[in-house]
């Protein structure tokens, strides 16, 4: 593929050069011809091309209608005229002048308009920035509680970007960004702007920010997954701190939503992509460079994916029982360079990546310290490429790289399982029920005692096993 | 083969058409001279004509007007013929391409409704740093002295923990490193405007010393600073961690310094920065925890060295970092991972070395236990990728290329000893017969490493047997 592409480019480059050269030759030829005309004559009275053109006889100001009596027809040498000079009075008279016309000026189409030109109004607000600053709404803040201020800012500024300067903005209730394209907004947080859940939050499953929320009875097919009018709603930068008592951010609909460059921390559920229950189950979001720190509780999930067709890139997730979990509807997602870090979690019942869906793409995803790196359902036909599962300590006595619930139907390629201490259970792969169509391709097995018995792995692996 | 023939045919055509072009051009030129001679006998006048639109209040500069010879009946009254007459004057109204410049269109004083030439830049400006709550570095300008901005920057950092410090366009020369603590109570982020340059002074003391040091002070033998040794299990208290970012602008080492060094923290983010004329571009030290983890994300950062011996674009001693979408040029080693620099992700990196003939150069040198490479390109380095015997890296979709005969040594993938890594769909290509040219070249026979679906475009097959031993699939020529 690359080979072809590259040659293609070279080929095109050469073809381009070729065309260029030919064009130069052609140009040279034409230029040459043109010059020959005057040169071929007797020198005093040249056979010059003469044309009849329109010239301004009376000055006309910008915005005025050009009267016929302000124009005259003159016959002049073509060489002396601007390119495009208008040749008939009927093409000029009655039109509006876009610039001041002076006596003796020639008229080109760029100076004319059929419609009355509008005064260009450049509205300069006091602030020249395009953002809506949340600090403008500070008077609505109750102490440090910005709930009312943020809600008002969203309500008053549809399709605006709301900017949060460095600082802490506490909220005591969920902030909602509607899916409705006439009402949606984006959030831009400075690097150290923190939206923080109040200690009195109450329900730890209640999210701090809900994005792409449908109104009651709103059509999810046209507003959601398949609506190409969707605004590019985004949340970028800063910190969403759930204070250990709340959940972080949910995405419930809309399309092409971007979450980038922020951290959700101390959350029960960090980021929750909810099935909008449209025909494709899709939220079609791009999530990049977003990091999640869970609250370390049993049941906490870093990223819970229940919708389809999302792309998640360059994320680190830690301190959650399951760093990434895909439910049955959370399929057809792309996961690249995701990193699950099982700190603050103990026991056997946890995993870096748990996939219950029909299938997703995992490319260079890392799991650290989780009892199971990748937990795979029997129905799952995911591709796990170049993943790494690692344990740096023996705190947990269960070290399994890939584990299935039922048979194995996924593809695992070039993935490495490695630990530094011997524990009770060590395996590259553990398959609950024999069978399935899945296979393992060039595994790197570096489990200390797991390599002694690779029977299970060999059942699914017909290639070399690297150590 | 077919391709070569085709290329030659195209080249031939190319030459032919160029020659044709030159020929016609030359013959044409003589004609023009003749024509000009004739024109002097006719009674033409000189006139200034507009060749690029001039806004109200605009100036008459050489790129806006030209002098032309026209017949007198074509020019209006009050025509200007010499641009020097217009030196201090302004356009009284909007002038269009093709307009003659006449006295009516020219004024001595700037019109009230003049269009500011810079207005385009100011409208819709994304950032008013004060409004956005940034600490603007120019506020600390008085702290700078003798062409050294370092004390001013350091003071801004020390006085504003948890804030973002903004650098407007401009050059900020520093004579000593800037230090950013990874202690959450002290850390800051830097935001540079597109044309803001932090520049090392000519008398910078140590080329290995980085201009910006995050969570480490390199003077103390590259050890993490004492206040970065946070006493949690991993050296990182995740719940209160405050990530540091450097976004935008340029870090210029002036061929005297190194760029950025990172010794700790988590989720440090370097984005959209150009690091140039440095010895080492980004140096990630072993993290201050049992994993050696530094958890850095670098995206869309370009690095240019000055062809210094032993210099590296990326020098990686820490773990769990992610680097994507980078170009790296003019360094001895595009990327160098030491023994402790493992479990990193490298995606879409593109090092190239232009000079440095007669020297052994490497695009990606991995001395660690293993890293992940995905679509990483090496241009002109002696060895594209180099691994050690203990390295178990996965190198997917690589590309190694040479466009000259340089160094007489063109090896795509090289292992110092036996080979234990995985290469998938790697492409190695060059058109020159050199002394050593190989897809895979091993210091010692053996190892478990595999090569899958290699794509080869190499003139000599001298070392093909090394590849064949490790290749488990067809070889694509």
What can you tell me about this protein's structure?
The complex is a heterodimer of chains A (467) and B (477). Chain A has helices at 2-39, 147-156, 220-223, 455-460, and strands at residues 50-56, 71-77, 96-97, 112-113, 132-133, 161-164, 167-171, 175-178, 186-189, 193-197, 207-213, 234-236, 239-251, 258-260, 263-267, 269-273, 286-288, 291-294, 301-305, 311-318, 322-326, 334-341, 351-355, 361-363, 366-368, 372-377, 383-385, 388-391, 398-405, 411-413, 416-419, 425-430, 439-441, 444-446. Helix content of chain A is 12%, strand content 35%. Chain A folds into 2 domains: 50-113, Type Iii Antifreeze Protein Isoform Hplc 12 (Alpha-Beta Complex); 132-460, Single-stranded right-handed beta-helix, Pectin lyase-like (Pectate Lyase C-like). The model of chain A is unreliable at 31-45, 121-127 and 223-227 (pLDDT under 50). With 467 residues, chain A is mainly beta. The two termini of chain A are 31 Å apart. Chain A is elongated, with a radius of gyration of 34 Å. The relative contact order of chain A is 0.05. With 477 residues, chain B is mostly beta strands. Chain B folds into 2 domains: 45-116, Type Iii Antifreeze Protein Isoform Hplc 12, CATH 3.90.1210; 129-470, Pectate Lyase C-like. Chain B contains 4 helices and 34 strands. Chain B has helices at 2-39, 119-122, 150-159, 464-470, and strands at 45-50, 65-70, 90-91, 106-107, 135-136, 164-167, 170-174, 178-180, 189-192, 196-200, 210-214, 245-247, 250-262, 269-271, 274-278, 280-284, 297-299, 302-305, 312-316, 322-329, 333-337, 345-352, 362-366, 372-374, 377-379, 383-387, 394-396, 399-402, 409-415, 422-424, 427-430, 436-442, 450-452, 455-457. In chain B, the strands form 4 sheets. Chain B has a 26-stranded parallel sheet that branches. Chain B has a 4-stranded parallel sheet with strand order 25-28-31-34, with no helix packed on it. A two-stranded antiparallel ribbon of chain B has the order 1-2. Chain B is flat. Mean pLDDT of chain B is 84; it is low at 26-40, 117-125 and 220-235. Classes of the chains: A mainly beta (467), B mainly beta (477). At the A-B interface, α1, β2, β15, β20 and β22 of A face α1 of B.
